[in-house]
């Protein structure tokens, strides 16, 4: 029997990509899954839907006002646009910052009082772009550097408070999800060429990395898992 059997997990970005793949894997291991999404109709029937727009702070608070105990929070929701510092649209910057940084941070904060006394695990989905700035530059990478720092800061704070909640991150390279459609918006030909030239990671690959963290023994703390396609430099 899986270590995750009969445990409860809250997953943001649950209706597509990494979040959806993870939800399905968790249910397959006997877990109870609460899926946060703007499109509850897109969730499998086995996932309990929580409708919320993570760009709105009030809606994030509403998620946790109705929440009971959870054993884990997995922040999969994210937004990616190739929006440069030199000439990018500040509206794109703001949306990425709201979802990738502020919503993730607030979910982390508000989740803490919902963990049982013996603790649990928080996993933030970050990116290889949080470890190095890609040649294309842009505002997306700074938001993922922030996720990396937020994860480390929260880990230190939890230890100082002597709370048995572990926090980790997973940092994938290119993953073939709908997120790429936004990132390559206006450059669809480049995306098609990239897909042709590279065996990208699939959402299930990242889901398995997250499960490695969630299924680890209680005394094993994972900081970050970096993974990419063998074809990606």
Descriptive report:
This protein is an alpha/beta fold and 233 residues long. It has one domain (8-227): NAD(P)-binding Rossmann-like Domain (Rossmann fold, 3-Layer(aba) Sandwich), CATH 3.40.50.720. Helices cover 39% and strands 16% of the residues. The chain contains seven helices and seven strands. The chain has a seven-stranded parallel sheet, with helices on both faces. It is globular and about 50 Å long. The mean pLDDT is 95.
Question: Which key features would you list for this structure?
Answer:
233 residues; globular; Rossmann fold; 16% strand
Question: What order do the helices and strands come in, and which of them pair?
Answer:
Layout: E1 8-12, H1 17-28, E2 32-37, E3 48-51, H2 57-65, E4 72-75, H3 90-111, E5 120-125, H4 140-160, E6 165-172, H5 179-183, H6 188-197, H7 203-214, E7 224-227
Parallel strand pairs: 1-2, 1-4, 2-3, 4-5, 5-6, 6-7
Helix pairs in contact: 1-7, 2-3, 3-4
């Amino acid at each position: 029997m899986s270590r995750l059997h009969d445990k409860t997990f809250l997953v943001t970005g649950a209706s597509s990509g990494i979040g959806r793949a993870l939800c399905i894997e968790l249910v397959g291991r006997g877990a109870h899954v609460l899926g946060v999404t703007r499109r509850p109709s897109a969730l499998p029937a086995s996932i309990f839907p929580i409708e919320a727009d993570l760009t709105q702070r009030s809606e994030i608070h509403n998620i946790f006002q109705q929440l009971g105990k959870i054993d884990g929070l997995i922040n999969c929701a994210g937004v990616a646009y190739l929006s440069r510092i030199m000439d990018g649209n500040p509206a794109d910057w703001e949306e990425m910052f709201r979802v990738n940084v502020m919503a993730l941070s607030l979910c982390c904060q508000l989740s803490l009082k919902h963990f049982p006394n013996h603790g649990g695990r928080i996993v933030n989905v970050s990116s290889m772009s949080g470890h190095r700035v890609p040649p294309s530059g842009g505002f997306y990478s700074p938001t993922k550097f922030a996720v990396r720092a937020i994860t480390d800061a929260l880990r230190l704070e939890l230890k100082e408070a002597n709370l048995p909640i572990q926090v980790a991150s997973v940092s994938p390279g290119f993953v073939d999800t709908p997120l790429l459609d936004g990132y390559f918006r206006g450059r669809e030909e480049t995306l098609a060429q990239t897909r042709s030239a590279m065996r990208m990671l699939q959402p299930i690959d990242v889901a398995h990395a997250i499960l490695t963290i969630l299924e680890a023994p209680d005394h094993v703390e994972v900081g970050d898992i970096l993974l990419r396609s063998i074809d990606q430099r």
